[in-house]
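Lab manual, section 2.4: Encoding a predicted structure.

Procedure: take the sequence of the chain (509 residues), apply the prediction step described in section 2.3, and record the output as structure tokens. A sample record is shown.
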Amino acid sequence: MERLDYAALERAGYTGYLLHSAPVKVLQFGEGNFLRAFADHWFDLANERAGWNGKVMLVQPRGTHPEGVEPFRRQQGLYTLCLRGLENGRPVQTGRVISVVEDCLCPAVDADWQAVLRLARSPQLEYVVSNTTEAGIAYRPGDSAFGPHAPAAFPAKLTRVLYERWRAFEGAVDKGLIVLPCELIDNNGRELQRCCAAYAADWALEPDFVAWLHSANTFCSTLVDRIVPGRPRGPETQAAAQVCGYRDELLTVAEPFGVWAIEGPAWLEARLPFAGAGLSEQVFVVPDVTPYKKRKVRILNGAHTGFVPGAYLAGFDIVRDCMQDDVLRGFMNQMLYEEIIPTLPLDPGALRAFAAAVQDRFSNPFIDHALLSICLNSTAKWKARNLPSLLEYRELRGTLPACLVMSLAAYLAFYSSDIQARTAEGLVCRRPQGDVYTVQDEGWVLDRFYALRADGDAALTGAILRDQQMWGMDLAAVPGLEAAVLADLFQIRRTGARAAFAACLQNHV
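Recorded output:
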């Protein structure tokens, strides 16, 4: 069977929309499944429906896997997006070849980094989109600005790109870019702008550039919401190939539901290509994205991060299967309705409706959303998604939220379950069922857990909770938290995560 590319589609008589050539208008830091099923999908629809006539250049944020660009080059940027799920209780399945991607670049390859800088000098470039996980938008001193090699951190790369553009157009105000970060941190646009300004100061860049950075470029905080599991593998990929008539190394599956709320000035709505493509219900500009973001991050993402590490240790592999288990589903709902929703200053009815939809979305019969893929970078995720709910619940009620405390213990258990080795890929651990898995996170996080592997659970709990680099505060200073987490960790080790979750539910009754 042929591999997907333009020639293969022509030979197969494909009649769907394709855009062979157009100027690159989007520089996208992030080549993974999420952005390709999210922003790139809507840019592709804008090409078809609104004549936007633009392409997207993908860039690996860290640039540590040069081989990862090859599938994009073999397939000329083409990939298939399948949207599958439930809408109003009825199954929905659609498929589309996405043709908006121009290429994928690895900044660790010097020639590719020079291609990124050439694109920075292009008058057609309009947007920067990013998804580098919660850990990606961070200022790390010591990154170098110039020379043949790319800076390491994503904000440093972006600062270098903007500086290249400022020099190329001699500070022209109309050549600033619209920056649309999709990382799940509060005020992601403002935080990214702050990091860029910090690098500009580190590198002693011209004051005129710093002024242009802030005045000519529009850094938008955004909310993103679409469930996109890991790339289909095995039988699912083979079945898709039979339906499509070609092999697709980049096949991507997502749920139909999707929202991209963009905080920005009123003029941005007309500037973006989405309203003209009939996408205003999915992609829209608002003066303040905070209410949308807090609801989504605390409830949808908080649910994932709150129960998934424990569910994986309990022997589950797929989100949908967890929703068929009374204990795991009950634990998640108890956490949502009794501990998270009371901390949110929004309409309670709307919050409960959103939480009810979460269970339906997690039960999607078409998506095998792997728990291990959700566990990627769980430290930053738990800090951003669950820690605020825990702290605000205690402030509101004067007690600790039992399910959120248990979820923190499950995170510790997941990162320390019978540690086997520390490899370049991550921290190799073993599930109680006997199979090994690899924890993937920032290197320094994994090093901390590996260093504590023989010190016992009490020492582990104390050291991790006191690690202010992880949490931005000393969690052991929260009254009662260290003892409660340690007790839950002991229970997970002794009885297993599912039984520990069940005990947590019983204590709520």
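Check your result against the sample. The CA atoms of residues 457 and 490 lie 8 Å apart.
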